[in-house]
Amino acid sequence: MTNLFKKRTLAYIADYFVVMAVMWIIAELLVVVVFPFGAFFIYEYLIILAPFVGMIYFVLLEKNLGTTVGKHLLFIKVVSNSKKNYYSNISYVQAIIRNLSKIYWFPIIIDVIIGRIFGSSNERILGRISRTEVINEDIKSDKK
Questions:
Q1: What is the C-alpha separation between 46 and 52, in angstroms, rounded?
Q2: Are 110 and 103 within 8 A, CB to CB?
Q3: Which of 78, 56, 54, 74 has its CA nearest to residue 65?
Q4: Which of 6, 15, 27, 91 would staple 70 via disulfide (CB 3.0–4.6 Å)?
């Protein structure tokens, strides 16, 4: 059986491709504005827009569905581990906090390293701060 860290890594890579596909669609839609007016400078702002699209993607899907496309493909899910709502869907605040390091690729590496130093091998530090946990979907049914 694949360990949870490998599943999470593969899910993140799959989610990266989903976000890049959305960014490609946005870039193609901008052609309507850019080409007739010669406003090619707009494409310089896509590097600024990409982190926001990624944050919106991760926050909305993890809050509303408890999973992203990549996590769903690998049968893992994000749940709250706070005492108030144990193993239920996470709140928007929890989703925002746990996904802050996914803005660019470098902060998530630091997040994983700090999580491994101060927590378990499957945990990120922002996951601990937000009181969320990534679990295998079949484990949820066993613990309830």
A1: 10
A2: no
A3: 78
A4: 15
E strands, 4-144, are: 76-80, 132-136
Per-residue tokens: 68:
């992203």
Name the percent of the chain in helix, strand, coil, to the closest 5.
Answer: 70, 5, 25
Question: Taking the model in full, what pTM does it have?
Answer: 0.84
Alpha carbon distance 80, 32 (integer Å): 43
Residue that has been written with the tokens 């360990």 in this structure: 3
The whole-angstrom separation of Cα 29 and Cα 34 is 9
- Do 95 and 62 touch, CB atoms closer than 8 A? yes
Per the CB < 8 A criterion, the answer to whether 54 and 31 are in contact is no
Give me 8's structure tokens.
Answer: 């999470």
**What are the tens digits of pLDDT across the range 78-125?**
999 877 777 788 999 999 999 999 887 788 888 888 888 887 767 888
* Closest C-alpha to 70, from 6, 132, 16: 16
